[in-house]
């Protein structure tokens, strides 16, 4: 076997092994998407009813709660960025980071300082490489988040918005995550969680034409808001984590399918080159045999003379 043919065979074996790995990763990601979608659907009834309750309290009382009241001159904002812990998911994390960068520039143009909170090793690595300050980060659960993870993330964010900006607090809380639209479409989006936009929340919770029920609040509307709004933030973060997880698996499945298809195309190309190299070797051997036979025939004819 010629040297060139051995090179092609080794490359075919390596690409075939890679194709098996990417195919397995594609199948795993596809199975996890279904689980993530079920979790998103299961979390919706709680989030919907909690949003209705928050809206009812906020719109049915005259209390000025710090989590529902706009600051007169907001000077500081917190941004929560959701990325992935692992790679091999195409542009999933980079798209979320780009959306966070655009949001950061927009807030800076409005004269606001930005505190960054990050979920996922990819986002932490991005900011760490550029030596940017990160207020707090969380890793290790992006592909399968639990409600306890959302609660853990929400605690410092709620604490920061309840403080005065002079004490290191913030006036606004924003979140950047990847919204799961379909198996083929995932969009990096940003949104403001706090202070609550009551018109938007009411529309999300009641729909068009529906009237919110009236409640009496005990011990007071402010105390009820104190209890409900942290749960509201936790549910929003949990829903974003679940959507981000589904988007991550969908992006990884799409990336691995593309890698598997490319590996198959490369194997076909290398196989053609290997066949061409084998044919060239056979042709060369035949030429050498024919040339050798001709030389022997000429030598025999010369000796007879």
Give the termini distance in whole angstroms: 41 Å
Number of helices: 6
Would you tell me the structural class of the helices and strands?
alpha/beta
Would you count the extended β strands for me?
A: 5
Helix share of residues?
A: 55-70%
Question: What is the residue-mean pLDDT, rounded to a whole number?
Answer: 84
Would you mind describing this structure in some detail?
63% of the residues lie in helices and 11% in strands. It has 305 residues and is α/β, with parallel strands linked by helices. Helix 4 packs across helix 6.
Summary keywords:
6 helices, 63% helix, alpha/beta, 5-stranded mixed beta sheet
Short description:
The chain is α/β, with parallel strands linked by helices.
